[in-house]
Amino acid sequence: MTAKELVKLQSEFFFGNTTKSFKFRIKNLQKLKEILKSNEAQLYEAIYSDFGKSEYETYETELSLIYHELNLAIKNVSQWSKPQKVTTNLPNQPGTSFIQPEPLGTCLVIGAWNYPYQLSLIPVIAAIAAGNTVILKPSELSAQSSGAMAKLINSNFPTDFLHVMEGGVAETTELLEQKFDKIFFTGSISVGKIVYQAAAKHLTPVVLELGGKSPVFVLPDCDLKMTAKRIVWGKFLNAGQTCVAPDYVLVHKDIKAKLLDEMIVQVREIFNINSDISENYVRIINEKHYDRLMQLIDSKKVVIGGQGFRGALVIQPTIMQDIDFEHIVMQEEIFGPIMPVIEFSNLDDAIKQVKLRPKPLALYVFGKKVKFINKILNEISFGGGAINDTVMHLTNSNLPFGGVGTSGTGNYHGEAGFRAFSHYKSILKKSTLIEPFLKYPPYSDSKLLILKQLLER
Ligand code: NAD
């Protein structure tokens, strides 16, 4: 089936209003949960062949988040869909006013490869909960995982409601030529621009979940051991192929040496990579990314790691010191297991350096003094982040997740996801008992005086 035929089919189904019923939405969310639960073995196997990733980590970073979002949506969809009453202004009395969510229609979700299940399915869950039909285009780079997801979904759901269309640039380009009611894209900034341009042709609204260089500020009064542990975990999880991974560390010069020592201890304790095989460490997605990453490693600056095993697509967790903003590793989002550490002596200067660059998707601060933490939070614009932790903010569905500026537009997770796939209709309901004469001609100075009293309040 062509992209055009697929969109036509889904649009016709949407027009039939079936997806608007809560029963239908909840039934399909439950069905998705059952299908995923009863086919977990296939899902684990596919991720293993794409990344060499353990079941434990696949559950922790993919399936648990999907189940959590499914449970949340099943429980709350009728509450989220309720019309919300708001106050009515004086000129519209007697009357009532309310805001009523409605589904947008036929939506396109384009996923990235680094967490192929959750980055594809969490937006799909939100779209279904909001009452839409969905076409999912997962990444071709995580081919086994995308294939497993396509097989499960396409054999269990009708094409006119939910369908996975596999493919790369050609297939995505064909999809993007169609008119959708919403496009939800996760991926790189460069492809984000292509998606935005294609959407603009149809005035289709978009959510763009993009990337960037997410800094970690380490202040002198931080808890060093905990700081090092949480930075190391957040960075080397999924071998650094995480959109909100700490990209680089900005550490105060007084504690730089101690932080580096502690990070080395933590890398050894948590990952212990001495060869190309590790149960608890993930591979790089392909040779192209492997080669790109190896070129960023500056052996003179390495304090731990630095070695790669091309055949196995494994790069050791690598920390580099004495890096400055001009270094090659600081030019683009790293998206791999390489951590540059930059020291600073003046917090204002460090903040300025971050502000001179594109707005990050995430930002992390480790320290105790509220004054300095708030200074960083208030002065730098970024998508979201954490104080004294890394990455974990995205597991709280009460925190809308998304970027700002080049790191993205729009957000999702929990109710924010439902909102992303809904239109909020504003409705005024008027009584027919009276009609103010002030609205109508003939106009007069005395009527204008009364109008001025009423309308500006
Ligand atoms: P990508 O932009 O290369 O690919 C994303 C999707 O776009 C894929 O499905 C791919 O098939 C499609 N695509 C690629 N080239 C295209 C083209 N020319 N025209 C149309 N479609 C095209 O991104 P990626 O390599 O899969 O992911 C890595 C990037 O995504 C990183 O920058 C990372 O930070 C970002 N990311 C962001 C989030 C987030 O939630 N904000 C999550 C994961 C990844």
Question: What would you note in describing this structure?
Answer:
With 457 residues, the protein is of the alpha/beta class. The protein has 2 domains: 3-210 and 408-424, Aldehyde Dehydrogenase, Chain A, domain 1; 215-401, Aldehyde Dehydrogenase, Chain A, domain 2. It has helices at 3-15, 22-38, 40-51, 55-81, 118-129, 143-156, 169-176, 189-201, 224-236, 256-270, 287-294, 347-355, 370-379, 415-420, 445-455, and strands at residues 84-86, 95-103, 106-110, 133-137, 162-164, 182-186, 206-209, 215-218, 248-252, 302-304, 308-309, 314-315, 318-320, 338-344, 362-366, 384-387, 408-409, 422-430. The strands form 4 sheets. It has a 7-stranded mixed beta sheet. Strands 5-4-3-6-7-17 form a 6-stranded mixed beta sheet, sandwiched between helices. The longest helix has 27 residues, at 55-81. Nicotinamide-adenine-dinucleotide binds at residues 110-114, 119, 137, 139-140, 168-169, 172-173, 186-188, 191, 194, 209-211, 243, 333, 335, 361, 403, 408. Nicotinamide-adenine-dinucleotide is lined by residues 110-114, 119, 137, 139-140, 168-169, 172-173, 186-188, 191, 194, 209-211, 243, 333, 335, 361, 403, 408.
Q: Which tags fit this structure?
A:
457 residues, alpha/beta, Aldehyde Dehydrogenase, Chain A, domain 1, Aldehyde Dehydrogenase, Chain A, domain 2, 2 domains, 18% strand, globular, binds nicotinamide-adenine-dinucleotide
Secondary-structure topology with pairs:
Blueprint: H1 3-15, H2 22-38, H3 40-51, H4 55-81, E1 84-86, E2 95-103, E3 106-110, H5 118-129, E4 133-137, H6 143-156, E5 162-164, H7 169-176, E6 182-186, H8 189-201, E7 206-209, E8 215-218, H9 224-236, E9 248-252, H10 256-270, H11 287-294, E10 302-304, E11 308-309, E12 314-315, E13 318-320, E14 338-344, H12 347-355, E15 362-366, H13 370-379, E16 384-387, E17 408-409, H14 415-420, E18 422-430, H15 445-455
Parallel strand pairs: 3-4, 3-6, 4-5, 6-7, 8-9, 8-15, 9-14, 13-14, 15-16
Antiparallel strand pairs: 1-2, 2-18, 7-17, 10-13, 11-12
Helix pairs in contact: 2-4, 3-6, 4-5, 9-10
Nicotinamide-adenine-dinucleotide binds at residues 110-114, 119, 137, 139-140, 168-169, 172-173, 186-188, 191, 194, 209-211, 243, 333, 335, 361, 403, 408.
